[in-house]
Amino acid sequence: MKRKITAFLKKLGIWRSLKVRLFLIILLMGLVPAYIIKAGILQNYEARAVDVRQSDVQNQLKIIANHLITYNYLQDTSSEVINAELEQLSNLYSGRVLIINGNLKIIKDTYGISEGKTIISEEVIKCLKGTGMSKYDRNNGFIEITTPITETVTAENQTEGMPEGTELTRGVMLTSVSTDIIMATMDVLNRKALILEIIMVVVVFAIAGVLANVLIRPFDRITKAIMEIGNGHMDGDISVPTYQETEHISNAFNLLHNQMMNMDSSRQDFVANVSHELKTPITSVKVLADSLLAQQDVPAELYREFLEDIAEEIEREDKIINDLLALVKMDKSAAELNITSVNMNELAEIILKRMRPIARKRDIELLLVSTREVTAEIDEVKMSLILTNLIENAIKYNREHGKVTVTLDADHQYFTITVEDTGIGIPEESLNRIYDRFYRVDKSHSREIGGTGLGLAITKNAVQLHRGSIKVESTFGEGTRFLVKIPLTHSLL
């Protein structure tokens, strides 16, 4: 049954509510201690009441036990004084008193039903040996007390074996005392405690409901703020510093929201840049074509000059499209990497050999420094793209008669490629944007230098596909240094 109820509540989703859980925790924290305190108070009262009753009865029994010896009651039970005392004690405590002599014979029973009988019990025998005891029987509602009837040897009665002052046990008083009055008091206390419990349940229930709502309110504010941002009714960051947890959630959401805003802004900038970059060559081609069409009897030399310009613009358009396609491919998952074992020293030599004709036009020296033989598990095409873009940029943004140094090194886990030039450098404010698509540090000379502004974006994506890193250090006017670090084996990716 319990499992069915739990399963039903789970279906309702009630256990997934933090408010419900807080409510139950507060409710239990209020009721469980109250129940424990109530039970403790009642048990303590019961134990204390029984102890007091036992103490009172034992004091009365000791007095009567002395009277029994004084009036020689164990030999003669006709004493009206003793019988009256026994009856009074029996009536006072709603109990029963048995007087037992040393032969275990019952000589007096206040109920009058067991006189003359013999009683054999562990408690009576122990008491005859001088050890009185008491026992509380909660189930049957009585206290049983055994009291030794002792006689002290006087000077007249002393013998060689029993000197004066020796105490002799002559008999036993077996007394049963009712605890009905204690139970009645306990019932009254239980009823009053039950009323208090009901009141406390109502109060704690209300407090738990209020506290659960108050405690959960900051999370509701976060939810409302996120929904408003999602619906476009609210701009900026959310702030709910009520708890550390709400503050952490707010900060995490703000970070995610800012990243998404930046991504959206970057996407818009990218679309705008792509539109601009693609439109510019087309506009130039249209202007050149319109110029030719507007003239009559145009010389062949002018036709050729205009057609060469048109071809250059078309080639530029083609390069932009190819770079965009390469970038789209780079954005796909690393599972598309074509991993092979490649000798990086030979690959670097091949790339430098391709770049040397471009470098000679500006009298730029290309130098490869290999500190060791490096073989790595990489995608050779994408790695060639990384080296080509970095070395080509180092040549384009270098000075006349400058130098480009490519350094190849490795440790037991990674290999590094450093491309360092003696060129114009990158301003500090531009270092964080050089990997943005279509971003150019020197826009005024971008047409002279060439390129699409996508090279470093493609390079960074290719490095990240290899689970590597790329860092840049630059001093404006002195030169730039790129450091690429990539794992040697594909198993580390």
From TrEMBL:
It catalyses: ATP + protein L-histidine = ADP + protein N-phospho-L-histidine. Residues 213-265 form the HAMP domain. Gene3D superfamilies: 1.10.287.130, 6.10.340.10, Histidine kinase-like ATPase, C-terminal domain. PROSITE patterns: HAMP, HIS_KIN. It is found in: Membrane. The chain crosses the membrane at residues 20-37, 193-216. Its main location: membrane. Residues 273-490 form the Histidine kinase domain. SUPFAM superfamilies: ATPase domain of HSP90 chaperone/DNA topoisomerase II/histidine kinase, Homodimeric domain of signal transducing histidine kinase. GO terms for molecular function: kinase activity. Its EC number is 2.7.13.3. Pfam families: HATPase_c, HisKA. Keywords: Kinase, Membrane, Phosphoprotein, Transferase, Transmembrane, Transmembrane helix, Two-component regulatory system. This is histidine kinase. It comes from Suilimivivens aceti.
